[in-house]
Each structure stands twice: as C-alpha cells, then as structure tokens.
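User: I've been trying to design a sequence by hand for this structure and keep getting stuck. Would you show me what you'd pick, starting by listing the structure so we're on the same page?

Assistant: Good idea, let's start from the same input. This is the structure you sent:
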C-alpha cells in the first residue's frame, strides 16, 4: 500500500527524481522557481472567474481535475524543496500558526474589511 504521510511522499518523490537522474536540477533555487510556476498555474485557473464562479470551481469536473493536478504539482515541489533543505513542513506550519495566533488574536478584524494594512497579505 502507498504511504500517505509526508515522509513517505517525500521518499517517493526523491526516488522518482533519482530514477530519472534529476537530482542535479533539484536544487533549492530550481525547486523554489518550479513551485512558483506551479502556484501561478493554479492561479491561472481562477484568473477570469468571478468570486461566485471560483467558489464553485470544483463543480465542473474538468476544472476540478485541473485544480487537483495543480495542487498536486505545488505540493510535490514544496515537499521536494523541504526535503532538499531539511525543513519539516508540518513543524514549520505548526510554528507559523503559533506565531500567527499571537500576532493576530481572535476578535473583530482590525482595520475593517477595506483596511489598508498589509497584515492581510501575510495571513495564512
């Protein structure tokens, strides 16, 4: 049975790359660039959709398939990037959530819905 944990997926990705002798291309800079390109391809699916259409994107089987493929590509490059640099993505995420809980305490949003703060750009 295929492992569906982060370490197992990272091993599969590393084995896949090794079998094709891609390791020379899987350097941090190259993987970060590839991650950015794949994230842009995910964004492209939503580029001209209205907010309502974007909310329903998974209702269209063709678009849903494209979204799933791009999500997989983004995650694959992120996991490979983390593997090359020795970053534990789950630990990094947990630490970021902890910092954000302190930085952005629960309660009414600061600045309102149209606030000019750049804090919203860093959330998530």
């Amino acid at each position: 049975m295929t492992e569906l944990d982060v370490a197992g997926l990272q091993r599969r990705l590393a084995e896949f790359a090794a079998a094709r002798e891609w390791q020379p291309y899987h350097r941090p800079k190259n993987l970060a660039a590839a991650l950015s390109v794949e994230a842009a391809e995910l964004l492209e699916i939503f580029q001209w959709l209205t907010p309502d259409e974007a909310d329903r994107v998974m209702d269209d089987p063709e678009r849903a398939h494209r979204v799933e493929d791009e999500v997989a590509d983004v995650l694959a490059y992120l996991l490979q990037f983390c593997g090359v640099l020795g970053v534990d993505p789950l630990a990094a995420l947990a630490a970021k959530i902890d910092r954000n809980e302190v930085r952005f305490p629960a309660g009414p949003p600061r600045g309102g819905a149209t606030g000019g703060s750049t804090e919203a750009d860093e959330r998530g």
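That's my pick for every position. To get oriented when you compare it with your attempt: The chain is about 65% helix and 0% strand. The chain has a mean pLDDT of 90.
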